[in-house]
């Protein structure tokens, strides 16, 4: 081992690995420096748990002569046979080291060792990465060197773990902060919060298409079903919309009971007004089809659902609003208020999708004018438009072919 090169590597890690700003770059440079220092690595894996509603952790795998491969694991992985019979399961559970020479008495202890042996691996060691907060993460190191790792090489790996753990912890916390903000306030708002836009009054004006939707019959639904069932229904119902919104360039800002507020900024995700509104309309039609197809069995009946969505375009104020040290990153303005009023109008008109005159003008040819209506809180009446492929009569009737089920179809 080249002790000077190894010491430079640990100093580089302690200093924040500044020449490798991303986790894959940091891992690649770390492994390449170790090899250059005389440690004959074949494969290195780093496995880090995170806080994410769908992903239990991320993995980074380096192989000699290849780029770092980044992957993720869902929560179902924890119950898989592959994980439960792996050395990493023990490392995560007990925070202990696992070492085995693959031609020795422990060479068949774990199923993965047979696969590694076929690749020519001679030695394996898994080392825990202990974070200051008490959480345990894992790393694995292999070599194809005849006879396996030497005692000096193993000592170097163990000495590397503390500075590597500190740097991984800092990176992990930054990643988790980003994920949590994306999960709870959205990507666009999350970027601004992490960027320092955290004081009350930090706001900006933007032009956007506005989406405001509501589940029909939610009050009656909540009254007659257990709370746990209602939550499960809401989650499925929101799934019908969120994927469509995200796919077409929008961002969900807020869930309000059974209501959903989303925006499609013109200048960032989806381009000019006409293009933005066309994408919003595609998302609305996709969400409509998803909700129409949604079924929820309860006893001997099958619940079917309808929702309403109002679409509008206008100027919104986007940023931090609140009291004291409790803030909300949201949007306000007359345009948002009008969208909320139009959503209630959709229920009265027995329509699924309605739009303001401004929105319908931006993507014409698919709308029928439904009339001009006074809007509470606004001095002027508003022309309201409905999709040409919908009719009030059809949307007011229960769905056919489901006599054993019920249809949630009253106003919320």
From TrEMBL:
<feature type="domain" description="Guanylate cyclase">
    <location>
        <begin position="209"/>
        <end position="343"/>
    </location>
</feature>
<dbReference type="GO" id="GO:0004016">
    <property type="term" value="F:adenylate cyclase activity"/>
</dbReference>
<dbReference type="GO" id="GO:0035556">
    <property type="term" value="P:intracellular signal transduction"/>
</dbReference>
<dbReference type="InterPro" id="IPR050697">
    <property type="entry name" value="Adenylyl/Guanylyl_Cyclase_3/4"/>
</dbReference>
<protein>
    <submittedName>
        <fullName>Adenylate cyclase</fullName>
    </submittedName>
</protein>
<dbReference type="GO" id="GO:0006171">
    <property type="term" value="P:cAMP biosynthetic process"/>
</dbReference>
<dbReference type="InterPro" id="IPR029787">
    <property type="entry name" value="Nucleotide_cyclase"/>
</dbReference>
<dbReference type="Pfam" id="PF00211">
    <property type="entry name" value="Guanylate_cyc"/>
</dbReference>
<dbReference type="InterPro" id="IPR001054">
    <property type="entry name" value="A/G_cyclase"/>
</dbReference>
């Amino acid at each position: 081992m080249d002790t000077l090169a190894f010491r430079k590597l640990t100093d580089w890690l302690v200093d924040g690995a500044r020449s490798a700003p991303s986790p894959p770059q940091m891992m690649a440079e770390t492994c390449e420096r170790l090899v250059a220092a005389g440690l004959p690595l074949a494969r290195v894996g780093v496995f880090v748990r995170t806080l994410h509603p769908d992903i239990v952790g991320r993995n980074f795998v380096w192989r000699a002569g290849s780029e770092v491969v980044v992957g993720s694991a869902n929560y179902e992985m924890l119950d898989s046979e592959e994980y439960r019979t792996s050395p990493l399961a023990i490392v995560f559970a007990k925070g202990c080291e696992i070492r085995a020479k693959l031609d020795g008495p422990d060479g068949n202890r774990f199923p993965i060792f047979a696969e590694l042996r076929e690749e020519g691996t001679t030695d394996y060691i898994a080392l825990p990465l202990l974070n200051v907060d008490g959480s345990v993460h894992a790393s694995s190191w292999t070599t194809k060197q005849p006879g396996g790792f030497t005692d000096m090489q193993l000592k170097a790996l163990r000495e590397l773990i503390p500075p590597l753990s500190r740097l991984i912890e800092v990176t992990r916390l930054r990643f988790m902060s980003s994920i949590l903000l994306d999960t709870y306030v959205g990507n666009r708002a999350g970027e601004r919060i992490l960027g320092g836009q955290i004081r009350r009054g930090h706001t900006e004006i933007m032009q956007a298409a506005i989406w405001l939707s509501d589940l029909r019959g939610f009050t009656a639904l909540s009254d007659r079903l257990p709370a746990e069932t209602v939550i499960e229904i809401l989650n499925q119902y929101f799934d019908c919309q969120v994927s469509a919104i995200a796919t077409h360039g929008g961002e969900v800002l807020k869930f309000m009971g059974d209501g959903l507020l989303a925006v499609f900024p013109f200048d960032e995700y989806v381009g000019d007004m006409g293009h933005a509104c066309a994408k919003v309309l595609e998302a609305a039609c996709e969400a409509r089809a998803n909700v129409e197809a949604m079924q929820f069995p309860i006893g001997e009946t099958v619940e079917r659902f309808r929702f309403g969505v109002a679409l509008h375009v206008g100027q919104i104020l986007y940023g931090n609003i609140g009291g004291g040290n409790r803030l909300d990153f949201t949007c306000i303005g007359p345009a948002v208020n009008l969208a909320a009023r139009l959503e209630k109008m959709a229920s009265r008109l027995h329509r699924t999708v309605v739009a303001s005159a401004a929105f319908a003008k931006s993507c014409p040819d698919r709308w029928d004018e439904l009339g001009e209506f006074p809007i509470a809180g606004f001095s002027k009446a508003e022309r309201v438009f409905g999709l040409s492929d919908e009719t009030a009569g059809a949307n007011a009737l229960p769905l056919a072919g489901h006599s054993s089920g019920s249809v949630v179809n009253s106003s919320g």
